[in-house]
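Translate structure to sequence.
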């Protein structure tokens, strides 16, 4: 047992590093065949899940009898074996499975039956019980048919009767229900009662595991081909200190305002959250700094935790990256990413405007002052020290705007981040003959542009496109690039420049090898890396000739620290992806089942019939479904599940496609703060020390205006920039901001002074008039709000 416990962490680290490197390599140099790519991803993730989330915790195992301890280890080993066998079988038999589709062998069906069982256990451990139950119920429904609905309804009634009427009455109901189930010919099992009678088990298993329509379908492809790379990018940003730079910048920008620490949480979370893709990661990363400072400034623990929870949720809807969910939306509705980024600008602004105004009026209500100047970081110093860390984000955006796939753009961002961090580290210890760091920095920027701004084209073409000096011609530009590279490496003394070779090789390896060396390309990996290695070797030998002094102990320590941080971030990226891989695989399985049983269509028809012709009622039902189904799920998984189930119901009633998807995505994000689950509130309360449930309710009160924003852009598409002129968009934005400000005063109970309940009611009504109706209602609502503010005495007591 002790040996197993010692070896296990090393195995986990090795697998996590291998997982990240596999994804980085395949995204950068070419995706494998569909089954090979997706099954390899699931194999890595499932084994890591069963190793890092064992059946029993180590402390529990130590207290158990040896036989029980051996059983728990054996149980985990069984699922690890199932994961490896069911995934590797698909990779090895990929072509054969395609040939015998519809006539699967016995071993095919055994694998197809064991695979979903393994996946369900993986989901239970990595994501939680809610998604496990949803997936299991849909699997059972697909096998048994509509009779499952009667069965589950009886279970719910039995549970309710047992709790509220007693066990005897519940058992009586169970006996009666069983009688109806078993009644021959006319009971609940009568096949004629149900339109959908279930699928034959062999066809169901093969469809879910052996085809690209189930577990290994489009959603799994999206996860493998570009979502993982953004998770890895987020881990690297955190490891390189980008998160701390963003937090310091946020304090520098907002520290002089009333409620500065809370406003800093808003700014920092919006910037960090758009990349992280995880609300909980955002809460932990920024809340560790912002929540204690909010409490020290004078905010209550409850309010501080709620602010961080709401701010961290909103990071997922902030362009340009929007937590990577926007790329999935682009794939599903076939709208270019650049348009979706623009569509998301105003909704994100309104979300954070509502939170910021609530914070401002709460700070005024408490009489809080501004932060002390000594606590406010200098913005220019922060940009000088860490501004280069934002360059990879700009490279990411430039790559996407230029038409690159999200996966390749994310790959370039990851590699450019490694290059920039390594170059800046080396520059701190640099000794040049001219003593000019600017020369080195210019060379680094040109190198980054050559490597990462364009796709896999030949070296001369890449340089010609990258450097705006057409007067020199193609050949001189090629030589110029070699000279610049030589200078770059030459000015980095000793072996401290060597780490630059490796991330640089990742970029250079995308360049094609000469035609006369095509035979080298037949050798796996070597054909890609050899030309880069030869090129860098020549440059590095030239650099060695002009070195002036050896490596210092400080440089060696810096290199070790950087290497350790990169390895830890690669491991963290793999670990952070486990829950999402499990969730997207399960949702892929659900998609296949919904298509097979036509359940998605039936749910859409049901919602449409319930809403009749009322678009508002349809969206209200979708909001409830989004808040309930999104609880406890990662944002991307919640959006995918909701799109499958509820999106068709609102688009069928005439809602714009983009508005419907933004509406679903928006409420899928907000579900992280809605009780009873409220994952973001639980994460924030762990830092603030407040009650998690009360933190969730306070977060909902803070975000009350944010709950209205989705309805605004559904009914007024100009807020999504889908229609209208500049003036109509500006007018609608101004009216919405005014309504949000009045509603924030009402919810916080403070305008120019504390408000009575009557005035808060008037303010709420005034805000609703601004949200709804024609211009004359806007004037009436604005007049009512202004009248309340004039009635109050500035700084005085409660106005009645």
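Result:
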């Amino acid at each position: 047992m002790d040996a197993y416990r010692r070896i296990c962490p090393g195995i986990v680290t090795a697998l996590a590093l291998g997982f990240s490197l596999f994804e980085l390599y395949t995204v950068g140099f070419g995706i494998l065949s569909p089954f090979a790519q997706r099954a390899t991803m699931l194999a890595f993730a499932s084994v890591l899940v069963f190793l890092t989330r064992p059946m029993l915790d180590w402390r529990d195992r130590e207290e158990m009898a040896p036989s029980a301890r051996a059983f728990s280890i054996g149980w985990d080993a069984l699922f690890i074996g199932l994961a490896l066998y069911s995934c590797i079988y698909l990779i090895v038999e990929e072509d054969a499975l395609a040939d015998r589709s519809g006539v699967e062998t016995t071993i095919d069906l055994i694998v197809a039956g064991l695979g979903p069982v393994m996946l369900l256990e993986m989901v239970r451990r990595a994501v939680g019980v809610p998604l496990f139950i949803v997936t299991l119920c849909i699997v059972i429904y697909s096998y048994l048919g509509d009779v499952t609905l009667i069965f589950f309804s009886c279970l719910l009634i039995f549970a309710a009767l047992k709790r509220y009427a007693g066990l005897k009455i519940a058992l009586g109901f169970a006996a009666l229900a069983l009688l109806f189930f078993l009644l021959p010919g006319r009971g609940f099992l009568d096949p004629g009662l149900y339109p959908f009678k279930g699928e034959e088990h062999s066809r169901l298993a093969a469809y879910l595991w052996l085809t690209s329509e189930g577990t290994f379908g489009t959603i799994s492809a999206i996860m493998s081909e570009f979502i993982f790379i953004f998770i890895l990018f987020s881990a690297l940003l955190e490891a390189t200190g980008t998160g701390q730079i963003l937090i310091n910048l946020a304090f520098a920008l907002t520290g002089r305002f009333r409620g500065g620490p809370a406003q800093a949480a808003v700014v920092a979370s919006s910037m960090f959250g758009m990349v992280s893709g995880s609300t909980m990661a955002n809460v932990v990363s920024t809340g560790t700094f912002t929540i204690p400072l909010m409490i020290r400034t004078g905010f209550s623990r409850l309010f501080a935790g709620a602010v961080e929870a709401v701010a961290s949720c909103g990071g997922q809807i902030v362009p340009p990256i929007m937590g990577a969910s926007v790329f999935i939306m682009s794939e599903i509705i076939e709208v270019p990413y650049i348009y979706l980024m623009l569509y998301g600008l105003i909704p994100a602004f309104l979300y954070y405007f509502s939170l910021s105004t609530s914070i401002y009026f709460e700070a005024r209500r408490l009489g809080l002052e501004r932060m002390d100047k000594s606590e406010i970081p200098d913005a220019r110093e922060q940009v000088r020290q860490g501004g280069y860390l934002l360059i990879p984000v700009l490279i990411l955006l430039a790559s996407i705007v230029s038409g690159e796939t999200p996966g390749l753009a994310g790959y370039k961002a990851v590699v450019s981040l490694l290059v920039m961090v390594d170059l800046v580290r080396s520059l701190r210890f640099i000794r040049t003959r001219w003593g000019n760091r600017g020369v080195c920095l210019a060379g680094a920027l040109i190198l980054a542009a050559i490597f990462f701004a364009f796709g896999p084209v030949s070296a001369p073409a890449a340089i010609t496109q990258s450097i705006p000096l057409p007067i020199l011609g193609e050949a001189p530009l090629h030589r110029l690039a070699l000279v610049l590279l030589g200078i770059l490496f030459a000015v980095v003394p000793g072996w401290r420049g060597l780490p630059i070779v490796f991330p640089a090789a990742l970029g250079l390896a995308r360049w094609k090898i000469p035609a006369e060396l095509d035979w080298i390309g037949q050798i796996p990996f070597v054909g890609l890396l050899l030309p880069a290695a030869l090129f860098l070797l020549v440059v590095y030998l030239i650099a060695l000739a002009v070195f002036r002094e050896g490596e210092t102990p400080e440089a060696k320590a810096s290199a070790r620290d950087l290497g350790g941080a990169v390895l830890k971030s690669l491991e963290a990226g793999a670990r952070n992806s486990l829950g999402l891989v499990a969730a997207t695989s399960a949702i892929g399985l659900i998609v296949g089942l919904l298509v097979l049983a036509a359940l998605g269509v039936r749910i859409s028809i049901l919602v449409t019939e319930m809403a009749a012709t009322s678009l508002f009622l349809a969206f209200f039902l979708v909001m409830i479904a989004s808040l309930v189904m999104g609880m406890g799920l990662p944002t991307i998984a919640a959006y995918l599940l909701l799109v499958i189930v509820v999106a068709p119901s609102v688009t069928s009633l005439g809602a714009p496609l983009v508005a419907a998807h933004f509406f679903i995505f928006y409420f899928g994000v907000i579900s992280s703060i809605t009780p009873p689950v409220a994952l973001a509130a639980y994460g924030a309360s762990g830092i603030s020390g407040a009650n998690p449930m009360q933190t969730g309710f306070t977060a909902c009160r803070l975000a009350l205006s944010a709950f209205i924003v989705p309805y605004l852009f559904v009914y007024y598409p100009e807020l999504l920039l889908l229609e209208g002129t500049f003036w109509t968009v500006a007018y609608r934005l101004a009216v919405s901001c005014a309504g949000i400000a009045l509603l924030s005063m009402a919810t916080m109970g403070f305008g120019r002074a504390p408000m009575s309940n009557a005035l808060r009611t008037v303010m709420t009504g005034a805000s609703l008039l601004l949200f709804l109706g024609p211009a004359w209602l806007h004037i009436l609502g604005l007049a009512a709000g202004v009248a309340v503010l004039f009635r109050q005495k500035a700084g005085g007591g409660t106005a009645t």
